[in-house]
Amino acid sequence: MFPVLFSLCLVAITHVALASKVCPRPPEIPLATTNTNKAGYWPGEDIVYQCNPGYVPQYGSRRYICPSSGVWPTITFRCIPKKCPYPGPLNDGAIYVDDLNYLSVINFSCNTGFVLEGPTSSQCQADGSWSASLPECQPVICPPPPVSEFGVLSYHKIDSRDTFIFQDTIRFRCLLPFALFGSETATCQADGSWSALPECKSVECPPPEPIEHGFINGALRNIFHYQDTVSYGCNLPYIMDDASESRCEKTGTWSNKPTCKAPCKISLTRATVLYNGQKIKVKELNSIQHAETIWFFCVRKTEKCSYETPAQCIDGQLSIPDCFEERSWWASIWTKDPANMTPCSN
């Protein structure tokens, strides 16, 4: 009887001793699983952790062996989400991104004046790719402007494309004798419409006014339309120093009314002046045209030298320089003409 009891006790003690060396179920690691799933592991058995789909190892060993102590070593294995590559850029649009991790969602939008063609969002998948490809932002298209083919308002495209897209500009013109009122250009806007179109209106100007000492060419008719022109001329010896042509403007008025300028008589009898680079007696010159300049010789008595001072003809008015003194007949015989004196040094 005693040997039997002894054997049973020995088996029990051995069983307890062996049972204490069995490793329990390994700890659960977030975002990971093991290759086996048992309640216990004998010493020498191993487990291998692997990350769930969409996740990758961050650090730590994947494989662990049950030791004879029956206590698993510290499990350091950790997983992090897999990242998708940045999908941009999105031309003429924007990508809204919180992060690029697995299961993250990014959204797309287009800038003002552009329309989204393709998905509005995409999600990062387990294999590190996006669920949808990048969309495109296409410019808004405007219809042809509402201009009649046979009307007086026409336009032409500034660029060579067949269609009208956002920010395209067209330029207008009116068939003569109509004048264009409003902006001469229009732009394709973000909502697919055109900015304000101009108008063509008939414009008439009254007959041009005559000018003193002059005449008008081409003024024989009574009605003048926009862009019609006439030219003016002056009777000799008057001259015109501004534009001789006048144009009917869209305001219904003429662009300008020129004037005829009078020549200047030189109220001297004994003087030598410089005219067109040549010394000349004033009695030979008699008069000069409007805007012309002559130079008088003034005397600096302290130095017995002369210097030149200009005088310009302005519509019949010529001011003799204050420094100039006309010599008397008697003085002109006995004194030297200032024009022939030694020039002053400054």
Commentary on this structure:
With 346 residues, the chain is mostly beta strands. 8% of the residues lie in helices and 34% in strands. The strands form twelve sheets. A four-stranded antiparallel beta sheet has the order 27-26-29-30. Strand 26 and strand 27 form a beta hairpin. The N and C termini lie far apart (154 Å).
SSE inventory with pairings:
Elements lengths: L1 H18 L3 E2 L7 E3 L5 E2 L4 E6 L3 E5 L3 E3 L12 E4 L11 E4 L8 E6 L3 E4 L3 E3 L12 E4 L1 E2 L10 E5 L6 E2 L3 E6 L3 E4 L3 E3 L11 E4 L1 E2 L8 E4 L6 E2 L3 E6 L10 E3 L16 E2 L6 E4 L2 E4 H4 L1 E2 L4 E8 L4 E8 L16 H6 L12
Keywords:
single chain, 346 residues, mainly beta, 3 helices, 30 strands, 8% helix, 34% strand
Broad structural category: mainly beta
Q: Strand fraction band?
A: 25-35%
Strand order of the largest sheet: 27-26-29-30
How would a textbook summarize the main sheet?
4 strands, antiparallel
The total strand number stands at 30
The low-pLDDT segments are: 1-19
Briefly summarize what is shown.
The protein has 346 residues and is mainly beta. The chain has 3 helices and 30 strands. The strands form 12 sheets. A 4-stranded antiparallel sheet has the order 27-26-29-30.
